[in-house]
Design brief:
This protein is an alpha+beta fold and 98 residues long. The protein folds into 2 domains: 41 residues; 39 residues. The chain is built from 4 helices and 3 strands. The longest helix has 28 residues.
Amino acid sequence: MIQTQNIHSLTDFQRHTASHVKRLRQSGLPEVLTVKGRAELVVQTADAYQALLDRLELYESAAAITRGLQEVAEGRFITIGDFDARMRSKFAIGKTPP
């Protein structure tokens, strides 16, 4: 969540870059930069950005698993044997010897 103390003008960021970077590193929180009073940019450290991407990837994985489980519950799946037969037929692959 963006906190009001983390909203600064782009001009202030340009004039005091070192102090902003120090604060970003210490807090790990993003800053919103404004231009003419309107939010225009969000800046954060590379580590904080990577952590955000990691959380997003985890969320998307969990959502995909949830969708898959729902499909199984609704009976929308095929057995591994059926899948094997379809792929062998589609790609003209013979059965492997036992």
